[in-house]
Design goal:
binds coenzyme A
């Protein structure tokens, strides 16, 4: 198990899930605007889905196969979303995240992604962090570009609105480039 399982930024506190987070997670994910971009999240989303996800994530933390943080506000402790790195076996990991819709547009995603990237290259010792995004998910693409990831071409992704496979936009950042940027 990794030693550092909480991260602080100026406005946010990222930590492991707790069983009692299920209601807050379910409330934020019962929203098509959020889950529309993440095919693996069930929709409609209920309390049991949140409970199962928390249980699975905590098991995966224990064996190092997944590192999923909930994002909370330092001021008041409210849960606003999630950020995670899922190792894919090549010293690389996939970056994934969502925020409750009412928290969009305040720079929280960029702030949290920066902390998770530092954790990935520092604590986890990753060589590369990557993400694959729906081509119309402009907010998420903005977050990735602002966080130093660069376009790596396309990679198939499912459009959950239509069920069709579309050309996902693939982005990546290498640890060496991250170090060189002085971030
Ligand atoms: C992706 C998501 C986490 C972004 O959260 P956010 O709070 O809007 O992100 P931030 O405020 O930190 O940064 C947004 C950045 O994206 C860009 N951006 C924001 N809105 C945009 C829009 N409508 N079009 C294009 N770019 C946009 C900007 O570069 C902005 O940076 P700026 O504040 O310097 O202008 C949030 O929209 C979300 O949860 N979406 C649904 C789930 C999802 O898509 N997850 C990712 C799957 S790959």
């Amino acid at each position: 198990m990794m030693g550092c399982e909480q991260l602080d930024t100026s406005r946010l506190h990222l930590r492991r899930q707790r069983t009692q987070d299920a209601e807050a997670i379910a409330a934020l994910l019962t929203n098509w605007h959020v889950v529309r971009w993440i095919p693996i999240i069930p929709y409609p989303y209920g309390l049991d889905d949140a409970r199962q996800w928390i249980a699975r994530s905590l098991r995966n933390w224990a064996d190092g196969s997944d590192h999923q943080f909930v994002v909370t506000l330092r001021d008041g402790g409210k849960l606003i979303g999630h950020m995670g790195l899922r190792p894919d076996g090549n010293n690389q990991a996939e970056l994934g995240y969502w925020l409750g819709e009412r928290y969009w547009g305040r720079g929280y995603a960029k702030e949290a992604v920066r902390a998770v990237i530092d954790y990935g290259f520092g604590t986890m010792g990753l060589a590369r962090i990557w993400a694959n995004v729906h081509p119309e998910n402009h907010r998420s693409i903005g977050v990735l570009l602002a966080s130093g990831l660069r376009s790596m071409g396309t990679r198939p992704i499912t459009d959950r609105a239509t069920g069709e496979t579309v050309a996902g936009q693939s982005y990546a950042l290498d640890g060496a480039d991250h170090d060189a940027s002085g971030a």
